[in-house]
Write a structure and sequence with these properties.
Layout lengths: L10 E3 L2 E3 L3 E4 L6 H11 L3 E5 L24 E5 L6 H13 L5 E4 L12 H13 L3 E6 L3 H9 L6 E2 L13 H10 L5 E3 L5 H10 L3 E4 L1 H4 L4 H21 L19
Parallel strand pairs: 3-4, 3-10, 4-5, 5-6, 6-7, 7-8, 9-10
Antiparallel strand pairs: 1-2
């Protein structure tokens, strides 16, 4: 597959540049301290947080999740997890903004509690509504190239196709569709959900993804900090391989040394 000429070596979302292409979620950690240590080990600069876990307003406790996230070091992206439709997602985003949180939104709408698959119709609708309100929208979607392009046209700052269902750790089951999304996209493509091993992340980056978002695989590891470092290196190695370029896969064996030189 030819490299998309619109891709650059810099990782830029909505005009903001980042060194790290690894995004990290903040759920499922054993403690906020463990989470903070894993974030540090990951080298990530973008952290996603569910608004349900954030205390805002006058009743804010002295210590909550934001007490452990240095917002000068990390870009805080609020996710709308729990939203059942576009209206609920927009309401969550507005509550976060009114509470002084960044207008960067990871848009999640998954009404099915068993598989947590994103609702494409409500996601498109919410993106249209939020973009009009000047939010920077990063929609989580199934690996649907047509939807990804529509969201891009509606002003999404990036698209976040799933590799496999949330928390499943099954890897890139949607690889073929993600490749099409990457080929067609002119906004960053961040693979989200289902990545369970650093090798999965490396593969996504080798394919040309602009970034990956990891939560469960780091949070539930026996050693979250070590796993965070492993993902950091995998993302860097995968991107380095992609930028280096590789030849097409061959059906037949290809000698590494020309046999003609022996005769």
């Amino acid at each position: 597959m030819e490299e998309n000429p619109n891709k650059t070596k810099s990782f830029v979302i909505a005009g903001k540049s980042f060194r790290s292409r690894l995004l990290v979620g903040t759920g499922k950690f054993g403690s906020y301290l463990q989470m903070a240590q894993a974030l540090e080990a990951s080298g990530s600069q973008i952290v996603t947080v569910s608004l349900r876990r954030v205390e805002i307003g006058e009743n804010k406790r002295q210590e909550d999740i934001l007490s452990y996230i240095d917002t000068k070091k990390y870009l805080l992206v609020i996710n709308t997890s729990g939203a059942m439709n576009a209206e609920e997602a927009v309401r969550i985003a507005k509550i976060a903004a009114h509470g002084g949180l960044p207008k960067w939104i990871k848009l999640e709408i998954h009404p099915d509690p068993r598989y947590l698959l994103p609702d494409p119709i409500e996601t498109l609708k919410a993106t249209q509504m939020l973009v009009k309100e000047d939010f920077i929208v990063l929609p989580y979607i199934n690996a649907d190239p047509v939807l990804a392009k529509r969201l891009e046209e509606e002003g999404a700052a990036a698209v976040m196709p799933l590799g496999s269902p949330i928390g499943s750790m099954r890897g890139l089951e949607t690889k073929a569709q993600i490749e099409i999304i990457i080929e067609q996209a002119t906004v960053p493509v961040i693979v989200d959900a289902g990545i369970g091993k650093p090798s999965h992340a490396a593969l996504a980056m080798e394919m040309g993804a602009d970034g990956v978002l990891i939560n469960t695989a780091i949070a539930i590891a026996n050693d979250p900090c070590q796993m965070a470092r492993a993902f950091k290196m995998a993302v860097e190695a995968g991107r380095m391989a992609y930028e280096s370029g590789t030849d097409e896969v061959s059906k037949f064996a290809v000698a590494t040394s020309p046999l003609e030189s022996f005769f």
